[in-house]
Specification:
This protein has seven helices and ten strands. By secondary structure, the chain is an alpha/beta fold. It starts with a strand and ends in a 13-residue tail after the last helix.
């Protein structure tokens, strides 16, 4: 199985054909939020992504998500963890909760923890008298139901009692990180490398393999390089894959040139 590679294809194809079973330590991603539909045709005038149209029927989106999680079960190692950043908009305020309930009801996975991401800039609702500014998003920590007490985390033991009870360091479930790594014509909803760095420091160990099924402009890959981890990504936009590789080469001094083979571009 190749690592440090981004495949220009649907993530379901990558997980079916490219990734070995039970080989991924962490799945770190932020999927499309299903929120581009706006009154007046916003989705047509200002698409969020260059290829993907970010608006499905609600049930279609839920079914699409649970199908992907069923594939996660194939590739995720025992006690692996999924870090799933997902939010809402004025069009779909209840969707994240329906998605999490569907994941728990239709797959082997369950919600194990919730991290609050405090963004540096909030998203205001200036035209609404009863909607508040969205300055937080959630990162859902998801594991297999059978591994709820054993999924991996890096909290350090700070004390052991005379009866051998371990006490761990306190790690708060709030992360302060910038909103994104900068909008561009291909992707107006890029991910935050600051957020990824902090999440990986909590849940990953050196040289592990991280998979991002919606890697976009390569933010997760950059964070993996920064933290001594291997990465695999999937992205349906060829232009975003090319953008990611250019970004990675600039960041890592060309170290990725040896791994841009079959399926990557």
């Amino acid at each position: 199985m190749d690592t440090n590679i981004i495949y220009n294809e649907d993530c379901l194809t990558t997980m079916s054909d490219r990734i070995d079973e039970k080989s991924i330590n962490i799945i770190l991603t932020s999927p499309p939020y299903n929120m581009t539909k706006r009154k007046g045709g916003y989705a047509d005038k200002q698409p969020r992504y260059d290829v993907y149209v970010d608006w499905k029927d609600e049930q279609e989106y839920i079914d699409w998500t649970t199908n992907i999680f069923q594939s996660f079960d194939k590739v995720l190692k025992e006690n692996g963890v999924i870090l799933y950043n997902f939010s809402y908009s004025t069009e779909n305020p209840s969707l994240p909760y329906k998605v999490i309930c569907a994941i728990m009801g239709s797959t082997e996975f369950t919600l194990a923890d919730t991290i609050v991401w405090k963004k540096s800039n909030s998203i205001p609702h200036p035209a609404s008298y009863n909607r508040l500014n969205r300055c937080y998003e959630f990162v859902y920590v998801i594991c297999r139901k059978s591994e709820i007490s054993s999924f991996q985390c890096n909290k350090k033991v700070v004390k052991v009692s005379p009866k051998n009870q371990k006490y761990y360091e306190i790690v708060d479930n709030i992360i302060f990180a910038k909103n994104n790594d900068g909008s561009n014509p291909l992707n107006k909803a890029t991910y935050s490398s600051e957020l990824c760095d902090q999440l990986l420091k909590i849940y990953s160990s050196q040289d592990e393999v991280v998979y991002d099924p919606f890697i976009g402009t390569g933010t997760t890959a950059i964070s993996c390089i920064n933290n001594g981890l291997k990465y695999i990504g999937s992205e349906i936009s060829k232009d975003q894959v090319d953008f990611s590789y250019d970004r990675i080469k600039q960041y890592a001094g060309g170290v990725e040139e040896t791994n841009t083979g079959v399926g990557s571009r």
